[in-house]
Design brief:
Distance between the termini: 48 Å
Helix content: over 70%
Number of domains: 1
Order of helices and strands: HHEHHHHHHEHH
Number of strands: 2
Strand order of the largest sheet: 1-2
Largest sheet: 2 strands, parallel
């Protein structure tokens, strides 16, 4: 919903998390005004409260450092997948050009279908089990190629097939596993308690308290959204897509190139 609105307003996606956070800040400020108006500000600001804020920021920093490791690894995976797919297509093209093999032509079409299936899998339109079964079915093509090419070509194809299998398993693990779910829970609990505390803290002058509660609440809530965003860099299937997703452009480009190869050999 937010992304669609931003596209209509032509707002850069980097502001998406800020826009998701703003409604919470508006509600918090309104509640603060209500607490001030009705005289419910019964807490006082002390060093213990500021220490809790510092501890929460430290915890959030720890969670970010953990999720960032997976995110940096995830950035490489689409490019590596695309490289393996195109290497497999190169081997098929070599066999076709050398032997004018109809089997190689069928193999390239099958590889193109697998690439499309892989893209659908990223958007959770395909199950991992079906993708793995399709990947394993290339073994039949490799058996056929044994009489048409050298053994080291088959070995190279098997190596790329194995590399793709490892990367698919890794991506599946990253997007299905949350980094330290209990850590998220305690960060959310502390943030909620801090925000409630800020609402009922008495600070003079009042406009300064509104500024500080707005600023601190915005930072804490924004960072929790940011952590959850980083934790799933393959969240393309979510209704309101996450912001920090890794680019699928290498795989989309490889799909386009493999389709071009298929069209070229079909004409010959």
């Amino acid at each position: 919903m937010i992304k669609k609105l931003m596209k209509k307003l032509r707002i850069n996606s980097r502001w998406c998390l800020a826009l998701k956070t703003l409604p919470f800040i508006v509600v918090i400020v309104l509640v603060k005004f209500g607490a001030h108006y009705f005289g419910y500000e019964f807490l006082s600001l002390n060093s213990l409260f500021t220490a809790i804020i510092s501890a929460n920021i430290f915890l959030i920093g720890f969670l970010i450092s953990g999720t960032l490791v997976d995110y940096k690894e995830s950035e490489k995976l689409p490019g590596d997948l695309a490289a393996s797919l195109e290497t497999m297509s190169d081997e098929g093209l070599i066999i076709y050009k050398n032997k004018k093999s109809e089997d190689a032509k069928s193999y390239l079409k099958k590889l193109s279908e697998f690439n499309k299936m892989l893209i659908d899998w990223f958007y959770k339109k395909e199950k991992t089990e079906n993708l793995m079964h399709k990947l394993q079915s290339f073994n039949d093509d490799f058996l056929i190629f044994e009489s048409q090419t050298q053994a080291n070509f088959i070995v190279r194809l098997k190596q790329e097939q194995n590399a793709i299998r490892k990367m698919v398993n890794r991506i599946h693990t990253i997007r299905e596993t949350s980094f330290l779910g209990t850590g998220y829970a305690i960060a959310e609990i502390i943030t909620s308690v801090l925000v409630v505390g800020l609402v009922f803290i008495k600070m003079d002058p009042f406009y300064e308290s509104v500024f500080f509660i707005s600023f601190v609440s915005f930072i804490l809530i924004y960072m929790i959204y940011f952590i959850k965003d980083l934790d799933n860099p393959f969240g393309y299937s979510l209704e309101d897509n996450l912001v920090e997703e890794v680019s699928l452009k290498p795989i989309l480009d490889s799909q386009r190139r493999i389709e071009i190869y298929c069209q070229e050999i079909t004409k010959t």
